Amino acid sequence: MLFFGVKFGYWMRRLLQWSLTFKSSIMRSKSAPEINAGSMADIAFLLLVFFLVTTTMDTDLGLFRKLPQIQEDRVNVIIHTRNVLPILVNGMDGLMVKGEPVDIAELKDLAKEFIANPTNDLELPEKKLVSVPLFGDVMVSKQIVSLQSDNATSYGMYIKVQNEIAKAYNELRDELAQEKFGTSFTRLKETGQKQKVNAIKMVYPQKISEAEPYDANLALR
Amino acid sequence: MSKFKKDDGKADPAISTASLPDIVFMLLFFFMVTTVMREVDLKVKISTPEATEIQKLKNKSLVTYIYIGEPNDTKVYGTTSRIQLGDAYANVKEVGAYIETKRGEHDEAEVPLLVTSLKVDEDTKMGVVTEVKQELRKVSALKISYSTREGAKK
Predict the structure, then answer these.
(1) Which distant-in-sequence residues (6+ apart) come within 8 Å of B154 by Cβ?
(2) What is the DSSP annotation of A72-124?
(3) What interhelical angle do A155-181 and B126-138 show, nearest 10?
(4) Interface ipTM above 0.95
(5) What is the pLDDT, as a whole number, of residue A58?
(6) B7 close contact with A: CB closer than 8 A
(7) How far is CA B19 from CA A21, A26, A102, B108, in A?
């Protein structure tokens, strides 16, 4: 058995020697003959596998919102009903705007008409004179979009509604940017033209109000 | 000798493998740049809804994630939506404390820039989400982002 062990060892050595000559004759670069490129590839593969296993290509995209501060005292600010667009979503994901059931596809156009109020309709929001840089004095609508959802509404529906409202604002802002500056609103944001972006935001401020969730404790007082 | 023919070296080296490490390093750098270290093993099933009016989260280090969805292991944990903070399931009440701890890890100057990203499954009921938002308001974590996938613009 010892004899076979020795023989095996001898042939293993010869195999190794033979494979080493093969490696060095192909992989040796002329400039630095000492660097053995074979093991570099191994190290690189190891690192690659490590990164593949421990990371995700999670591109984080989302709808940005700013939550309102909690106000200790429930001050009821007097707002004219004409200035508020009441959007309700019930537990069955049914959508209702101003008391009328509405399909999700119509929401954007209703919201756009409400926010812009191009014909100064008396049923739609009032406008007040605001001094906007780059625009001069502009009649800005006092619009507020109010969104109330039920506890049983599905999140998917809620996001769809939020998306449509955001779309309404963005389309109005795009139209204004085209009219005034000749480019789209997104283009202005991409090229970092902060002054123009802020001016357009002042003409169409994104006012989405979400109803305070029903707090049983407060209601009982 | 005839059984073990020596390689006479005349076989032309068809593929030079000297550039193999370079290719692998390029792939490695690509992955290092485009990916994020996954810190959390998702314990809840999340399929975020689609939206078109979305913005990219600018600075990933300023983001705190809250995951809400159905647990992966429904036999043990049931099917009601759960909140996952960090690596474990949590109660709604613990959201505030979690945000505060995360806030403590940042400088004073960065605190107003902190964003909370809500990754919620699309079938979750709004009740849980509204409660989480209330807790966020209580700790003044007002900048939030509803995490969504990119939808097709019609």
Answers:
(1) none
(2) SS-------GGGEEEEEE-TT--EEETTEE--HHHHHHHHHHHHH-TT--TTS
(3) 60
(4) no
(5) 65
(6) yes
(7) 19, 12, 62, 48
- To the nearest whole percent, how much of chain B has pLDDT over 90? 0
Taking the C-alpha atoms of residue B141 and residue A52, their distance in angstroms, rounded to an integer, is: 33
Quick: pLDDT tens for A207-217: 888 876 554 44
Instruction: Report whether B99 contacts B116 (CB < 8 A).
Output: yes
Which residues on chain B are in Cβ contact (under 8 Å) with A153? Answer: 125-126
For residue A45, list chain B residues with Cβ-Cβ distance below 8 A.
Answer: 24
Task: Identify whether A197 is part of a domain.
Answer: yes
Q: What is the percentage of chain A residues whose pLDDT exceeds 90?
A: 0
Q: Residue B92 carries which DSSP code?
A: T
> Residue A42 falls within a domain, yes or no?
no
Q: Are B132 and B95 in contact (CB under 8 A)?
A: yes
Tell me whether residue A105 is in a domain. yes
The per-residue pLDDT for range A38-74, each reduced to its tens digit, is: 787 788 888 888 888 877 666 678 888 888 887 766 6
Say what the pLDDT of residue B51 is. Answer: 78
pLDDT of residue B2: 62
A-to-B residue pairs, Cβ atoms closer than 8 angstroms: 163
Q: Decide if pLDDT at A204 tops 60.
A: yes
- The answer to whether the CB of B100 falls within 8 A of the CB of B128 is no
Q: Which of B120, B125, B134, B142 to mutate to test the interface with A (most CBs of A within 10 A)?
A: B125
Whether residue B2 lies within 8 A of chain A, CB to CB, comes out as: no
Residue of chain B with shortest Cα separation from A62: B147
Q: How far is A159 from chain B (nearest CA, A)?
A: 7
* Tally of structural domains, chain A: 1
* Domains of chain B, CATH where assigned: 44-150 (3.30.420.270)
Q: Which domain holds residue A157?
A: 82-212
- In chain B, residues with a C-beta closer than 8 Å to the C-beta of A148 are none
Residues on chain B touching A166 (C-beta within 8 angstroms): 51, 53
- Searching chain B, which residue's CA lies closest to the CA of residue A42? B21
Closest Cα in chain B, distance from residue A34 (Å): 13
Mean pLDDT of B2-13: 65
Query: Would A55 be classed as within a structural domain?
Result: no
Task: List chain B residues with CB under 8 Å of A152.
Answer: 125-127
